[in-house]
Amino acid sequence: MKAVAWSFFGVRKASAYAEDVARINPIHVIVAGVLAAVVFVLGLVLLIRWVVGSGVAQ
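-> structure tokens emitted (58 positions)
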């Protein structure tokens, strides 16, 4: 999950990337990436609903 989180920010040292590639199962990365994307989108939706519902956008 840590490797996926770093990839969302786009910041990763080359040595850490090489270690992750050698150590992590690709299926785990795919599942973690999909879960992280779902959480990110849900967070944005909740934030937008909160802003619109609070009357700040008026």
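Residues 2-54 form one domain.
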